[in-house]
Amino acid sequence: MRRFAVATFALLLPTAFWLRAGPVFPHALHATLFPTCTGCHAGIPTGDARRTFPTATQCTACHDDTVMPTVTWTPPASRGAGLLVFSHPDHLTKSGLETCETCHGDDRKPDAWMNVARPAPQACLACHDATAHLGDDNRCATCHRTLAAATGLTGEHIAALPKPLSHARADFISTHGPQTGKAANCATCHARESCQRCHPNASRSPTISALASDPRVALLMAGRPPSYPVPTDHRRGQFLSEHGALARASTVRCAACHARPSCATCHADDKARTVLGQLPSAEEAAGKGVQLQKKDR
After folding, report:
1. In the chain, what are the domain boundaries?
2. Cβ(19)–Cβ(73) below 8 Å
3. How does pLDDT run across 10-42, given as a tens digit for each residue?
4. How many CB atoms lie within 10 A of CB 49?
5. Assessment of whether the complete model's pTM goes beyond 0.85
6. Rounded-to-integer distance, Cα 220 and Cα 59, Å
7. SS3 267
8. Residue 51, helix vs strand vs coil
9. CA separation for the pair 140, 122 (Å, rounded)
């Protein structure tokens, strides 16, 4: 009876649906056939990748072109490492979760069996101590590998990564230097070329140098002009007369946006030589694969 019920429902669907189903599996249509998730996904509890998905042979037990129409089923192939680092066996052991529905159930249909959905980031927050998925108080490495290690992502995927909440602040660009202990979070979505686009002192910065180089990011950044917001103190009327003292007090700060030609244009005296020597040269400021844009004044 179970097979008949599913077959009757199937007749209402175009044949092309079955032939093109591929890796998008219609779980709900098979709800009356499978009492457990591990019947098809036997490798999940143990971490056995070879048994994570059912084989095409398992499908032919019903889809033999007699009981049910023949379908083409190819288990999803690994696309390489993504950003997410997740272990089903670890979570089953440490969290005490007993059912797959805890994470994979469709909240829109909580009482329906095999209404499967992708886990939402909010589901992780129920156990992990964080206020929001993209919050500043997170330790990203808990669930994510670095972007450079996520070799399965394409440039298109990287460009579409969601931005943390802090990135939407109006003062983010002028205050985005990583806080103590948070620099590792930047590596989740950024590579060295992300910073070389704007920072002429990238090769001298320990924080930027700690980021891995990534050709995908270099390609995304190439040709994009840098963004330099004017700091608040630069807007003061007396800034021109004060900036020498500020530069001597914090040359590293100046080097975040200025290369040596920025100052050498006006300053050639011995007093300025010490500061100029700490600024990157024009050649050094040109990031590998990504170059700063020169602007005529």
Report:
1. 2-59, 88-142, 190-231+238-297
2. no
3. 333 332 323 333 346 888 888 888 888 888 999
4. 10
5. no
6. 42
7. coil
8. helix
9. 14
